[in-house]
Each structure stands twice: as structure tokens, then as C-alpha cells.
């Protein structure tokens, strides 16, 4: 299903495939073992005690007590069920090829993985479909510690519309009118809601668990809906799996992976890192992490995946049908250093979730240079000595908590780690603050501009 995200293909990544086989040999040479476990960003976790801030209490806090939710309140639009719950109820119609009813279960995480070779942690692993982000996000929002029923106090307004599940039903074999119907219905509903008026919807955001391309049909186009081109949506922010190069109002957030811990230390022993790396390293089922079930072409490594995990320093992430691929996140979960061939595969996408300095956690090899034969991937990777690779791998591992989506059903009591949702909400609130103050939604960033040459700018 991932392979058919965009029929009008942005970039063909196939040319890289023949090149990846020799690279495996290099990869196997670079045996890397990580230094001892650091405490995973323990300093940050103190700041988030959702249980203290549940809605009811927050509403009647005495004025004298400093409000921990100040400038962090989120108001959730109370949408009619046709925009969310009904899509789940009618899950049979969500995909012709995939049983989405399985995948929307468990708050959007999908079925639990149990027969995992007996080595994965007993909890936290799910057969998660990449298109269920909207459901996971909505359920995480229900646990958000700073919800408010007073829109005028809100830093941002969440629109729990399952945009991707909606359009996903109609991508193949439907008219544009059918594809757009619910999106147009939505913006009409929003415009007439009381919360819209204060900022013309510019404090509103929604989540689309697909690439922006699927919501950006131009006039005369034949793919996707035109949701993000509707005037109302242009005022809003859309969190998507891959933003378009022209960034209408769409911001990239991580693909959901198979891991959804409920706490930093899932289970009784060790940290999240232990559960991911060590336990995974001993499990055959880690093939799941590396290759996306049974899709060998995403795997790029010969032989047994357990060996791969321990020995592969680098995981190649050539663009597929679009710039990004979920496997980049799956690979990072396995502690593998991603190698990107286009800045659109990560650096211009996940600015809230990945370090600005991409050399700390990844390798960039310009795809064009590989294509015209001036650079060999193998040579590019051989430049890195074991210590450099170990440092990058360590950085990748430290990034894991911030790129996974916590189990949305987990009680928000006690000290929690900051997951991809928390990071997204922080970024979103900063963005909406800028917009409200009449500033650009994102800083004019030289660091980003340097990549402009890699995109066909309009
Ligand atoms: C978008 O925001 C602007 C500025 O607040 C506002 O004037 C305009 O009416 C909004 N558009 C819609 C469709 O509400
Ligand atoms: C190969 O591609 C790179 C990157 O686009 C370019 O700088 C270089 O000049 C090209 N070399 C040849 C021989 O085409």
C-alpha cells in the first residue's frame, strides 16, 4: 500500500537498488557496538505531569497558583462523528487491500505483536499501519494534560478529522467530488463554529496520516483531495507524514512505527533503549523493524536480520514513490544510522523531531551524484571510522523516545517520557504563537534554504 501513495511519482528511487548490494558488504565491515546506556533524556521528563493537569482540575485552579498549562492549553473541536468515529466504524471501507479494521484497533496501534520469538518485551509492540497516525494522535490528545473547554484560553485548536483515512478510501476509482466531499463538509462546519472566528482558523490544526501530496490536488489534477488548498485549510496547520516541498501549511511528523511504549522503561528492566536495542537484537522478529513485513526491497541487507541489526551501521533510505519512507523511522528504532539521498527524505521534513545538525545522526549522499556515477555509496560510507559511526548511532538511539508515539491508552500518571506527540505539540504551539503575533509560521532559516537547490521550486 505504501508503494502506491502517489501515482504521479515524485522521484523514482529504483535506480539505487543495484547499488545497495555492494554497500551491504561495507555495512558488514563496520561492526559497531554502542557505549553504555545513558539515562534517556531524564531531565526533560520532569516537565510533563499530565495527571496533575487533567481538565477538570485545571479549570478550577486557584488563580494564585501558577498555571502549569499557561500558554499550553488545547481546545478540541467537537466534530460530528462523520469526521472521525464513523470512519472507524466503517473500517471495512477504508482500504480495498488492507484490513484496516485490524489496524485501527488498540487506539490506532493495531494488533499486538505476541509471537515475536519470545524475546521482544511483552508489551509495547504492535503491527501498526503507517496510515493510522490520525487515530493514534486523537487518542493521545485525549490524554493531553492541558485540554480546555474554553477556546478563548487555547494556545491552539485541534480538529480531530481523520483526513488520511477519509481520502484513502477514495484515492482509486472515485471522482474528485467524492474525494473532496467530507473535506468540504469539514471546512464548512469549522467556519461556522464559534472557535473559528477569533483567528480565522489560523490557530487550528489537523493531522493527515499520509503525505501532503495526497491532499494537494491542483485544479485539473487527478490524485488526492484538494483539502490543503481549501481557503480554510490554508489558514490551518496540517501535520502530515511528509510535507510538500512548498510547505503550504503542512509540517512533517514521524511515521508511526511498531513500537508504542507506555513508559520510558517498558517492563521492569532497563530503559527504552534496552528494550529496543538489546531485546530486539536477540529476536528474529526484528526483521519487522528492518524490512517492513516481507518487503525485502526495503531491507538492503543480506542474511539474517539479527546479524544485520548488530552489524549494520547504516541503513540506506533512498526515496521511493515519494521522498520519505517509514522505514527510516523503523531503522532508527533499531539503532541504525540512516543514509539519505535527498534532503526531502528527512532534513526538510521533521524539523521538530530530528536534530538540526543532520551530520550528528545521519549521512547524506546526494542522489544525483550517485546516479551519474561521481560518488559511490560505499566510498562515502567508508569515510566514517568506527568512533564516528558509534557516535552517530548513539545519537540515533537517544532520539528514539522523541520519534515513537507512546501507547495512547497508557495512563498519564507518573513521570512520562516526551514522545513524538509531545514534540509535535510543542512545535505546533510555537508555530501558532508566531502566527498569532503576525510572524512567519517558521523562522526564515538559512539552514533549510541550503537545500532549496534539491527541489524543483515553483
Ligand atoms: C484566514 O485568516 C484571515 C486572517 O485572520 C481571515 O481574514 C480569513 O477570513 C481567514 N479565512 C477563512 C476562510 O476563514
Ligand atoms: C554529477 O552530479 C553532481 C550533483 O548533481 C554534479 O555536481 C556533478 O557535476 C555531476 N557530474 C557529472 C560528471 O555529471
TrEMBL record:
<comment type="similarity">
    <text>Belongs to the glycosyltransferase 47 family.</text>
</comment>
<dbReference type="GO" id="GO:0000139">
    <property type="term" value="C:Golgi membrane"/>
</dbReference>
<keyword id="KW-0333">Golgi apparatus</keyword>
<feature type="domain" description="Exostosin GT47">
    <location>
        <begin position="69"/>
        <end position="374"/>
    </location>
</feature>
<dbReference type="GO" id="GO:0016757">
    <property type="term" value="F:glycosyltransferase activity"/>
</dbReference>
<feature type="transmembrane region" description="Helical">
    <location>
        <begin position="12"/>
        <end position="33"/>
    </location>
</feature>
<dbReference type="Pfam" id="PF03016">
    <property type="entry name" value="Exostosin_GT47"/>
</dbReference>
<keyword id="KW-0328">Glycosyltransferase</keyword>
<protein>
    <recommendedName>
        <fullName>Exostosin GT47 domain-containing protein</fullName>
    </recommendedName>
</protein>
<keyword id="KW-1133">Transmembrane helix</keyword>
<keyword id="KW-0812">Transmembrane</keyword>
<keyword id="KW-0735">Signal-anchor</keyword>
<keyword id="KW-0472">Membrane</keyword>
<keyword id="KW-0808">Transferase</keyword>
<dbReference type="InterPro" id="IPR040911">
    <property type="entry name" value="Exostosin_GT47"/>
</dbReference>
<dbReference type="InterPro" id="IPR004263">
    <property type="entry name" value="Exostosin"/>
</dbReference>
Amino acid at each position: 500500500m505504501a508503494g502506491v501513495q502517489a501515482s504521479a511519482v515524485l522521484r523514482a528511487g529504483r535506480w539505487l537498488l543495484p547499488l545497495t548490494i555492494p554497500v551491504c558488504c561495507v555495512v558488514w565491515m563496520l561492526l559497531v557496538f554502542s557505549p553504555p546506556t545513558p539515562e534517556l533524556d531524564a531531565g526533560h521528563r520532569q516537565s510533563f505531569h499530565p495527571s496533575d493537569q487533567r481538565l477538570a482540575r485545571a479549570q478550577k485552579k486557584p488563580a494564585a497558583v501558577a498555571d502549569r498549562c499557561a500558554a499550553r492549553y488545547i481546545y478540541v473541536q467537537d466534530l460530528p462523528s462523520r469526521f472521525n468515529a464513523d470512519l472507524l466504524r466503517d473500517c471495512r471501507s477504508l482500504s480495498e487491500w488492507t484490513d484496516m479494521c485490524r489496524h485501527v484497533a488498540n487506539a490506532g496501534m493495531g494488533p499486538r505483536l505476541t509471537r515475536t520469538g519470545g524475546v521482544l518485551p511483552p508489551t509495547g509492540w504492535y503491527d501498526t499501519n503507517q496510515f493510522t497516525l490520525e487515530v493514534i494522535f486523537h487518542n493521545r490528545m485525549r490524554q493531553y494534560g492541558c485540554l480546555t473547554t474554553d477556546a478563548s484560553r487555547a494556545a491552539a485548536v485541534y480538529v480531530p478529522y481523520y483526513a488520511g483515512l477519509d481520502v484513502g478510501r477514495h484515492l482509486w476509482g472515485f471522482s474528485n467530488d467524492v474525494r473532496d466531499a467530507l473535506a468540504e463538509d469539514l471546512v464548512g462546519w469549522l467556519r461556522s463554529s464559534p472557535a473559528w472566528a477569533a483567528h480565522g482558523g489560523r490557530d487550528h490544526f489537523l493531522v493527515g496520516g499520509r503525505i501532503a501530496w495526497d491532499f494537494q490536488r491542483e485544479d485539473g489534477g487527478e490524485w488526492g483531495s484538494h483539502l490543503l488548498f481549501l481557503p480554510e485549510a490554508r489558514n490551518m496547520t496540517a501535520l502530515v507524514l511528509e510535507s510538500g516541498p512548498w510547505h503550504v501549511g503542512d509540517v512533517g511528523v514521524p511515521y508511526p512505527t511498531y513500537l508504542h511504549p507506555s513508559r520510558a522503561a517498558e517492563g521492569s528492566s532497563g530503559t527504552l533503549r534496552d528494550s529496543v536495542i538489546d531485546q530486539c537484537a536477540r529476536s528474529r522478529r526484528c526483521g519487522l523493524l528492518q524490512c517492513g513485513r516481507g518487503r525485502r526491497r526495503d531491507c538492503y541487507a543480506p542474511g539474517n536480520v539479527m546479524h544485520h541489526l548488530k552489524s549494520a551501521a547504516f541503513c540506506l533510505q533512498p526515496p521511493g514513490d515519494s521522498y520519505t519512507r517509514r522505514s527510516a523511522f523503523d531503522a532508527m528504532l533499531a539503532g541504525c544510522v540512516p543514509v539519505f539521498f535527498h534532503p526531502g527524505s528527512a532534513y526538510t521534513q521533521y524539523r521538530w523531531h530530528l536534530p538540526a545538525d543532520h551530520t550528528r545522526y545521519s549521512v547524506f549522499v546526494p542522489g544525483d551524484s550517485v546516479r551519474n556515477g561521481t560518488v559511490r555509496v560505499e566510498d562515502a560510507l567508508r569515510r566514517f571510522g568506527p568512533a564516528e559511526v558509534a557516535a552517530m548511532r548513539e545519537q540515533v538511539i537517544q532520539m528514539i523516545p522523541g520519534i515513537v508515539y507512546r501507547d495512547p491508552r497508557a495512563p498519564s500518571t507518573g513521570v512520562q517520557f516526551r514522545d513524538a506527540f509531545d514534540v509535535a505539540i510543542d512545535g505546533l504551539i510555537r508555530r501558532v504563537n508566531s502566527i498569532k503575533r503576525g510572524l512567519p509560521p517558521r523562522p526564515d532559516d538559512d539552514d533549510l534554504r541550503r537545500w532549496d537547490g534539491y527541489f524543483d521550486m515553483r
